Amino acid sequence: MVQIAVLVIASLLTFSAGYLAYSRYLSQFVELDEDAETPAHKYEDGQEYVPSKKPVLLGHHYSSIAGGAPIVGPITAGAAFGWLPAIAWIAIGNPLMGAVHDFMALSASVRHEGKSIGYIVGEYVGERGKDMLLWFAFLTIILVIAVFALVVGVVFDAYPSSATASMIYIALALVFGVYLYQLDLPFLPGAVGFVALVFGGVWVGLQYPVALVDTGAHSADTIHLLGAASAWDWLPLAGAQNANVAAWVPVIVVYGFVASVLPVWILLQPRDFLTSSLLYVGVGGMLLGILVATAISVFGGGFSVGYAGTTYTSLETNLPAFLGFTSALGPIFPFLFVTIACGTISGFHSLVSSGTTAKQLNNETDARDIGYGAMLGEGLLATTAVAALAIIGTTNFGAGIVGALANFPAGGAVMLGAGFGIPTAAGAAFIGLVFVSFLLTSTDTAVRLGRYMFEEIIGTPETSLEKTTTNRYVNAGLLQCLPAYLLVGSGQWSSLWPLFGGANQTLAALALLAATLWLANWDDNKQLISTGVPMALMLVVTITALLWIGLYRAPTSLLGADTLVNQISFAIQIIISLTLVYLALSLAKLGYDNIQQARGSPGGTAPSDD
Predict the structure, then answer these.
(1) What b/e string do you get for 142-160 counting C-beta neighbours within 10 Å, with b at 16 or more?
(2) Could you give the 3-state DSSP secondary structure of residue 578?
(3) Which end of the chain is more exposed for a tag (fewer CB within 10 A), N or C?
(4) Do the beta carbons of residue 376 and residue 67 sit within 8 Å?
């Protein structure tokens, strides 16, 4: 067994080196200018373009990109392949690939009037390339909504106290938005008060845990809103998961729809600030808990923390370092990389960076902390996820890889208990709230970004059909949330998450392609290695994964499916995976031709960044 502190220290060392050295170089490389007018100021409209204070925007960006994926991905990969491959990919890949991706996507968007990566690609390879990338992003968004809704349902089922706390947290975010933007009251005392109330919501959750359906697995004090499971067995997912998870999933999908159509000041900005506060306390508390508990053990003290019938007297790995080259997910190459996804590199971040964040950036120089630095913070979250799994992991795999997801609150509770003596019941409820708040943030941000993507695809609506499909309610509801719910109907985690990861990381490769195109056309002297090498590596990994899913796994599952819902889900998976491969390869060819033109012709022929 290995001390959990070793995992944390390894990540801290590589992340620190990346921020202090590489991010400084990149900031100088793209010539960030504190005197330049950002799109937030140039196009300020009070709706989408809103200059935001650095801490507030960092909170929005951090909580939107961190979401649940850097928890879910590393836990899923660790449960499949072991903690060592997972932590190695996070510690090395994050500062060299993921943080570079986020920073370059944000910087490129700011230099292109706050437009999306699709627009940037279109600037250099034409409208066809732009539309292809936007369609790719739009399909990826549907996968995000589907998998996150399922994970929230799983966590709410395992920790009903977190469901209560999450409801209170959303209500508080709405009130906080009114406090800040309608009543125009002071930020600091409001922030302190509302953050305190969010933590108070954890205590309320412990007293009044809530579930939708009574499956017989919850504590006696749990409030069941919809009665017994027998009345809800007809719901999709009730067979693959259970009736309570099946009931929560459509609720989460509807929440994503409603939250996505509201102006950003009502829920998005205040909610993300509160979420970031949870993130800082939750992740920081777990990391410090590990280090404090390790110091106690090293210097002759001791601790004893009990959780779920097990007593922990040291924070060591209870999961094998390596579990083999194959798993339920598939072979370690490429599925380790696409499974960890957001903990190391994520295309979804480019949508956030060039979607909402670039429209709110107050100063160009803030891009270093918000772009590069926030991704390192996500890597620390991913590290705590692997650590939590390694502490608890081998005791709760009865439900397969999905069952491992509930180990994050459990492992976090042990860390907080070992380091600070916090009761494990309270610790698990709090970390469960942290987990779910990120998932909810990413879910409704994804739907909002999907709206932006589709609106860019259509452009100025002319026909009645175009006007209907670009309506925010039709776009978010019928074009995104409904197909996401159909996709998640199978409830098969081992097929859904790798498909999301493959799509998500292919999108990352394409975002890096957009940044490379920008650099190639900006100046002949700009090196293309920082973005080009990660782009090429991720294309190889992700195209392999998507072909495996589209040509082998999903067709095999479709032939064995015994319900219509499962058949529809696997058919959608085949269509999405193969469509994404076609779009990615076509875009890569268009991008390659443009770079050859820009760098191969005397003086270059493509448009300048100026």
Answers:
(1) bbbbbbbbbbbbbbbbbbb
(2) helix
(3) C
(4) no
CA angle 404, 317, 334 (to 5 degrees): 55
Q: Is the peptide bond before 334 cis (omega within 30 degrees of 0)?
A: yes
Region 435-445: mean pLDDT is 79
Strands 210-211 and 223-224: parallel
Q: How far is CA 344 from the centre of its chain?
A: 11
CA distance 491 to 568: 12
Which ranges of 299-373 does DSSP label H, i.e. alpha helix?
A: 332-340, 347-352, 367
**What percent of the chain lies above the pLDDT cut of 90?**
41
Of 409, 449, 419, the C-alpha closest to 144 is 449
Cα atoms found within 13 Å of the Cα of residue 434, Cβ hemisphere only:
30
Q: In sequence order, what are the beta bridge partners of 305?
A: 312
Tokens 């060299």: give the residue.
96
DSSP reduced 3-state for 337: helix
The runs of H, that is alpha helices, within 187-242 are 187-207
Q: What is the DSSP string of 383-425?
A: HHHHHHHHHHGGG--TTTHHHHHTHHHHHHHHHHHHHH---HH
**Alpha carbon 155 to chain centroid distance?**
16
Q: What would the pLDDT profile of 518-552 be if each residue is shown by its tens digit?
A: 999 999 889 999 999 999 999 999 999 999 999 99
- Residue whose token pair is 């125009």: 184
What is the pTM (predicted TM-score) of this model?
0.84
Location of structure tokens 């492992």:
411
